[in-house]
């Protein structure tokens, strides 16, 4: 749909379902007045505020950052807040919950499986010097070039669009899926991290990257430009090299001690106390 051909009204076809009350999902239609710049999430708000207050979805930031509003829009996993109606190829907008997850209600998927798979892969820096991490005396030094090897994978906002688009996730409950695997690769690649052996316990098993058929849909739909398919292929290579005893152990990022006598510039306030423990 080009910007010049936008109708005055947009038809939203929304898949409604309340487990425990409804026997099966039904599609309902809602007509919403179109305004320039309107996103799919804006349209859902219009429906909730002036047509049907029972419609349920999940959203928070409205700016493509929190990852809450992943949904199936015209058959593709997207963020509702990040999708301009003018950029869709139709004046009928169909919206359904992300597939491959149980439905809490209407457009709200239950993402517990995603977070469980993520947690199982220890998505944080693992090093033996835990005392330093508890009470830091300096910083782990990493070059910009080293950071660039994993930087794009840090942009993941855990929206689950990749999991919803993945044909393996659709048929294989054991598979960790592109989100969790990409985050495992992100930490395995980080020169400050020494946790490959810990994550390998999951990665080399039946939940790991070998279940990936390399459809590439995860990378196509990612709203943040992350390339999970690439991370998974790198991970396969790393696991093969490890199994053959060919994996190169890279040096761990060294600890740089804070130089003595460093003072803040006048006028720069001290950092506030943490608000959470
Ligand atoms: S509401 Fe936060 S990403 Fe859409």
Oligomer: single chain
Whole-number tally of structural domains = 2
| Helix-strand topology string | EEHEEEEEHHEHHHHHHHE
Q: Which regions have little confidence, pLDDT < 50, spanning 5+ residues?
A: none
As for the CATH topology of the largest domain, it is Fumarate Reductase Iron-sulfur Protein, Chain B, domain 2
Strand order of the largest sheet: 2-1-5-3-4
Q: Class by helix and strand content?
A: alpha+beta
Strands, count = 9
The number of helical elements comes to 10
Biggest sheet, open or closed, and with what strands and sense? 5 strands, mixed
Portion in strands:
5-15%
Gyration radius, rounded: 23 Å
Q: Which bin fits the share of residues in helices?
A: 25-40%
Overall geometric form: globular
End-to-end separation? 50 Å
What's the CATH superfamily of the largest domain, by name? Alpha-helical ferredoxin
- The first-level CATH class name of the largest domain: Mainly Alpha
Bound molecules: FE2/S2 (inorganic) cluster
Mean pLDDT: 94
CATH architecture of the largest domain: Orthogonal Bundle
List keywords for this structure.
single chain, 277 residues, alpha+beta, Ubiquitin-like (UB roll), Fumarate Reductase Iron-sulfur Protein, Chain B, domain 2, 14% strand
């Amino acid at each position: 749909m080009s910007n010049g051909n936008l109708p005055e009204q947009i038809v939203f076809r929304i898949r409604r379902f309340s487990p425990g009350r409804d026997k099966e999902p039904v599609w309902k239609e809602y007509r919403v007045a179109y305004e320039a710049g309107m996103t799919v999430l804006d349209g859902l708000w219009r429906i909730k505020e002036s047509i049907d207050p029972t419609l349920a979805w999940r959203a928070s930031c409205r700016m493509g950052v929190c990852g809450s509003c992943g949904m199936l829009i015209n058959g593709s996993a997207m963020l509702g807040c990040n999708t301009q109606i003018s950029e869709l190829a139709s004046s009928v907008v169909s919206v359904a919950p992300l597939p491959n997850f149980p439905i809490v209600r209407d457009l709200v998927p239950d993402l517990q499986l995603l977070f469980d798979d993520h947690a199982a892969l220890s998505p944080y820096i693992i090093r033996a010097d835990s005392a330093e991490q508890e009470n830091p005396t300096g910083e782990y030094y990493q070059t910009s070039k080293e950071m660039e090897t994993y930087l794009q994978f840090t942009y993941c906002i855990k929206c689950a669009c990749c999991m919803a688009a993945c044909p393996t996730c659709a048929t294989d409950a054991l598979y960790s899926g592109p989100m969790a695997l990409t985050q495992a690769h992100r930490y395995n690649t980080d020169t400050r991290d020494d946790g490959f052996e810990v994550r390998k316990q999951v990665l080399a098993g039946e939940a790991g990257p070998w279940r990936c058929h390399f459809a590439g849909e995860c990378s196509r739909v990612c709203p943040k430009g992350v390339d999970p398919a690439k991370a998974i292929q790198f991970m396969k290579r790393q696991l093969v090299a490890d199994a053959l005893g060919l994996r190169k152990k890279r040096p761990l990022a060294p600890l740089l001690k804070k130089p003595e006598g460093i003072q803040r510039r006048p006028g720069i306030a001290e950092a506030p106390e943490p608000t959470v423990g």
